[in-house]
Design goal:
Blueprint lengths: L6 H4 L12 H4 L17 H18 L3 H15 L8 E3 L2 E8 L2 E9 L1 H4 L7 E5 H8 L3 E8 L6 E8 L5 E7 L4 E2 L5 E5 L2 E6 L2 E5 L15 E6 L8 E5 L6 E7 L6 E9 L2 E7 L5 E3 L7 E5 L2 E5 L4 E3 L2 E3 L4 E5 H5 L6 E4 L5 E8 L4 E7 L2 E8 L6 E7 L4 E7 L7 E8 L2 E9 L6 E5 L9 E9 L5 E9 L10 E4 L14 H6 L6 E5 L9 H5 L7 H16 L8 E6 L1 H12 L6 E5 L18 H4 L5 H7 L4 H4 L9 E6 L8 H12 L4 E6 L10 H19 L1
Parallel strand pairs: 34-35, 34-36, 36-37, 37-38, 38-39
Antiparallel strand pairs: 1-2, 2-3, 3-4, 5-6, 6-7, 7-8, 7-9, 10-11, 11-12, 12-13, 14-15, 15-16, 16-17, 18-19, 19-22, 20-21, 22-23, 24-25, 25-26, 26-27, 28-29, 29-30, 30-31, 32-33, 33-35
Length: 702
C-alpha cells in the first residue's frame, strides 16, 4: 500500500474547496482587470453571461443536423453495451461502475470471476445512482468507494454534487447493499478519509476556519471514533497552512498492519511517517521529492532527483527496494529494480502476492517485466511487450491472496483487449474485447521526432489515412498536455475515430516536455522558469508537420485540456501563426491570479508563485490572459469549462473569452453547468462536449 498516494497524479490538472471559491468577493483585485466580476462563480449576473455565451456557441456550432448526428454517434460509443466493464476485486467479488443510456448516472455492480469471463455476465446491482439521485433530489456523481479489509463488509462511499472534487462521504453496508443508519458520514467537503478499523476513521476535512491550506485542501487529520461527534475527533497531525494537504491511513494487510501519515508539502514534495500505537510519528527517511511505497516487508522508493545514500548515487527515475524494517533500523541496503536510460522510463508497477510487475516505456512504447523478490538481485523475467506503437499494461488482481493479474493491450487503431492470467503459470488468456467503432484498416500509425528550439528530439504519434497525399492540405488535429509528469500513450478512442479520422483528418499526439514520457527529467525540463520549453516543443511538432507537408497552418487545429488548456492558451498568444483554430478545455489561463482561484495554489511547484516578483517575471511569459493583446492575428478559439469545476474553476475560461471578445477576436465560449474538472457529469454531457470541440475545429480547418 502506497504511503505516498501519488496525490500529485490524482490531483493533477488531468484528477477544491468545500464549496467553490468566489474569488472576486475575497481577493484584492488586480489593477485594471475589467473582467474580475466574472470571478464570482455562482453570481446571477455572471451566470446570465454564461447562458448568453452558451446560446451563441450552440447556435453557431451545435445546432446543425450534422452536429446532432455526430453527438449521437459519440454518445453511442460511450453508451455501448459492448464496452469492456473494467473491474476491481473486493473480497470475493469483482466490482464495476457502469454508465449507459438507461443508467446515465450509473450503477455500482458486482459479479463473480466465473460470470465475468462470460460474454454476457450476470451483474448484481449494489447501488443504483440514478435511483438514489432521484430519491434524494440530488445530482449525484460517483466518486468511488473505499472498503475495509479483510472482510470488506463496510465501505465509505463518496458522492459528488454535479462532479465537483468536493464530495459527501457515507458509510455503506456491502453485503446488505444499503447505507448504514447512524454510520459514519461527512458533509460535502474536500476530504481525505480512510479506515483505521471498523470503529475508527482517519479524517482530514474542512473542520472550520483555519483547517484548510492555502491550496484549499485539508490541513488537519484526526482520528474519529464511531458514535462520537466529529468535533470530538482527536488530532493526529497538523501541517502548515502553506503546505498542500495531509493524509493518514492504516495498511490492513494481515501480518503487516501499520499506520501512516503523509504531510504533502507541495505537489512533488512530501514527508511520510509511521504512526506507532502511542501516536508517535517516526519519519521514513527518503528524499522529499521521492515517491515511496510500503508493501508487506518491502519499501520501494522512486527518487525524482539523483539520490546519494549509503555511499552510492541512484539515478532520478529509478525504482529501489529495501527491507522496510531494516531500513527503519538504519540500514541502507538498496536493490535497483529499474534504472532509466536515455530512451526508457518507468511507467508504473503493480504487486501481486509474491511478485512485482514493472511497466517500462521505451520511446513511449511499453514492455512488461516480472520481478521476484529475493536476496540481492531480484529474479527478472519478461511478461511481453506491446504490439508496435501500442500500449500494454498489467496490474495485480489481489496482492493479498494471489499472483493473478489483468493485462490490457490497446492502440490507436487497436480496440482494447483485456486478459486474465496467473504469473508463473500459462500465458494470460483474453476475457474481454472492446468493440471497433470505426474501420481501422483505412489508417496507419507512425512515430516521428521533431527537433525543438534547443535541439531536443520530441516524439509524436501520427494517425493518418493510408496513402495520405503530402500536399499540406490535410485537416489535422494536434493534441498535447505537457505537465505533471503525465504521459500521452497510444490508446484506442472510438470518439477520435468517428469525429476526426472518418472525415479524412489526421490526428497527432505530441509527447512534449513537462510530461512523463522519459521520466522525471522530461517533466523537470519544463518546470517553472523552463515552462516555455513545452510550448516550443509543441510548436516544433507543428512545424515538422508542415515540413513533411502533412498539413499547413490553415488546416492545423490544436486541442488540449486542463494543463493542456494552458498549453493551448500559449499556442494562441505565442504561436498564432501556426494554427487555423484552437480549442482550450477546462484551462488555467490567468497565471497572475491562478494561485487565488479554486485549488490553484496547489500547483505552485509546477508553475511558480506569481505573488513573488522574481517568479512573476517568468510566469508572465506563459500567462495567456496577461499576454493577449490587440492587433494580433489570433486564430479562432473555443474555450470550454464547467461551473462545477472546483479544481481549476471556470473563471479562467470566462475571463479569457471576455478579454478576447472585447479586443475584437473570434473567441467562442461554452460552460457546462455540471461536470467538475472533467466538464461532464454523464455520458450525454461528455458526448456533447466532445462533439462541440471536434466540430469547432473541423469547421475551421477542413
Amino acid at each position: 500500500m502506497a504511503i505516498r498516494t501519488r496525490l500529485w497524479l490524482t490531483l493533477a490538472l488531468g484528477l477544491t474547496l468545500s464549496g467553490m471559491t468566489h474569488a472576486a468577493d475575497t481577493i484584492a483585485p488586480t489593477a485594471q482587470d475589467p473582467n474580475l466580476w466574472l470571478e464570482n462563480i455562482d453570481g446571477a449576473k455572471q451566470l446570465d453571461w454564461v447562458k448568453q455565451q452558451n446560446a451563441g456557441t450552440v447556435a453557431k456550432y451545435a445546432d446543425s443536423d450534422e452536429f446532432k448526428q455526430l453527438d449521437a454517434r459519440l454518445l453511442e460509443v460511450l453508451d455501448s453495451h459492448d464496452r469492456i466493464p473494467m473491474v476491481s476485486k473486493i473480497g470475493d467479488a469483482f466490482y464495476n461502475f457502469w454508465r449507459d443510456k438507461d443508467h446515465p448516472r450509473g450503477l455500482w455492480r458486482r459479479t463473480s470471476l466465473a460470470e465475468y469471463r462470460k460474454d454476457n455476465p450476470h451483474w448484481e446491482t449494489v447501488i443504483d445512482l440514478d435511483a438514489l439521485a432521484k430519491a434524494e433530489n440530488e445530482n449525484w456523481v460517483w466518486h468511488g468507494a473505499q472498503c475495509l479489509k479483510p472482510d470488506y463488509r463496510r465501505c465509505l462511499v463518496m458522492l459528488s454534487r454535479g462532479g465537483a472534487d468536493a464530495d459527501v462521504v457515507r458509510e455503506f453496508d456491502l453485503p446488505g447493499k444499503q447505507f448504514v443508519k447512524d454510520g459514519f458520514t461527512l458533509p460535502e467537503a474536500k476530504s481525505n478519509v480512510a479506515w483505521k478499523d471498523k470503529d475508527h476513521l482517519y479524517v482530514a476535512t474542512d473542520f472550520g476556519p483555519g483547517s484548510m491550506t492555502t491550496s484549499s485542501y485539508p490541513r488537519i487529520v484526526k482520528e474519529w471514533k464511531r458514535g462520537t461527534p466529529l468535533a470530538s475527533a482527536s488530532t493526529v497531525y497538523e501541517v502548515k497552512p502553506t503546505d498542500m494537504t495531509v493524509t493518514a491511513f492504516r495498511d490492513n494487510t494481515p501480518g503487516f498492519e501499520r499506520d501512516f501519515v503523509t504531510r504533502q508539502i507541495a505537489f512533488y514534495d512530501s514527508e511520510s511517517y509511521v504512526r506507532g500505537k502511542d501516536g508517535k510519528l517516526t519519519r521514513i527517511d527518503v528524499p522529499n521529492d521521492a515517491n515511496s511505497e510500503v508493501h508487506r516487508e518491502w519499501l520501494l522508493v522512486e527518487p525524482r532527483s539523483d539520490w546519494t545514500v549509503g555511499g552510492r548515487t541512484y539515478k532520478s527515475g529509478s525504482l529501489l527496494a529495501a527491507k522496510f524494517d531494516d531500513y527503519m533500523a538504519g540500514k541502507r541496503d538498496l536493490t535497483v529494480l529499474f534504472e532509466p536510460t536515455d530512451t526508457t522510463a518507468l511507467d508504473g508497477y503493480s504487486w501481486t502476492r509474491h511478485q512485482l510487475i514493472l511497466n517500462v516505456m521505451d520511446n513511449v512504447v511499453n514492455r512488461l517485466e516480472v520481478l521476484t523478490p529475493g536476496p540481492g538481485e531480484w529474479k527478472r523475467e519478461s511478461l511481453g511487450g506491446a504490439p508496435q506503437l501500442s500500449t500494454i499494461a498489467a496490474a495485480g488482481v489481489d496482492d493479498d491472496a494471489s499472483d493473478d493479474y489483468f493485462l490490457t493491450v490497446t492502440g490507436f487503431l487497436q480496440p482494447t483487449t483485456l486478459y486474465y492470467g496467473t504469473l508463473g503459470q500459462s500465458e494470460a488468456q483474453p476475457v474481454k474485447h472492446s468493440p471497433s467503432f470505426f474501420d481501422a484498416s483505412r489508417y496507419e500509425v507512425s512515430q516521428h521526432f521533431a527537433t525543438s528550439k534547443d535541439g531536443t528530439r520530441v516524439p509524436y504519434f501520427e494517425i493518418a489515412p493510408k496513402g495520405l497525399k503530402a500536399d499540406g492540405n490535410n485537416p489535422t488535429l494536434q493534441y498535447g498536455y505537457g505537465g505533471f509528469e503525465i504521459s500521452l500513450q497510444p490508446s484506442y478512442s472510438g470518439s477520435v475515430g468517428r469525429a476526426w479520422l472518418e472525415k479524412g483528418g489526421v490526428y497527432v499526439i505530441a509527447n512534449i516536455r513537462g510530461g512523463g514520457e522519459y521520466g522525471p527529467r522530461w517533466h523537470q525540463a519544463a518546470l517553472k522558469a523552463n515552462r516555455l520549453r513545452a510550448y516550443e516543443d509543441f510548436a516544433a511538432v507543428s512545424q515538422d508537420l508542415f515540413a513533411r507537408k502533412i498539413t499547413s497552418p490553415a488546416h492545423l487545429g490544436a486541442m488540449g485540456g486542463s494543463n493542456g488548456g494552458l498549453l493551448m492558451g500559449n499556442m494562441l498568444t505565442l504561436y498564432p501563426q501556426l494554427y487555423g483554430a484552437i480549442v482550450s478545455q477546462v484551462a488555467l489561463l490567468d497565471m497572475q491570479r491562478y494561485t487565488h482561484l479554486s485549488a490553484g495554489a496547489s500547483w505552485i511547484a509546477e508553475y511558480g508563485d506569481p505573488d513573488k516578483p522574481q517568479e512573476w517575471a517568468w510566469i508572465k511569459t506563459f500567462s495567456p490572459y496577461t499576454n493577449a493583446k490587440a492587433g494580433q492575428k489570433y486564430p479562432p478559439v473555443l474555450f470550454t469549462t464547467s461551473t462545477r469545476d472546483d479544481r481549476v474553476g471556470p473563471v479562467h475560461a470566462r475571463k479569457m473569452a471576455a478579454k478576447l471578445q472585447a479586443l475584437g477576436y473570434d473567441a467562442s465560449f461554452y460552460e457546462n453547468i455540471e461536470g467538475g474538472h472533467g466538464a461532464a457529469a454523464d455520458n450525454k454531457q461528455a458526448a456533447f462536449m466532445s462533439a462541440l470541440g471536434y466540430t469547432y475545429l473541423w469547421d475551421h480547418v477542413k
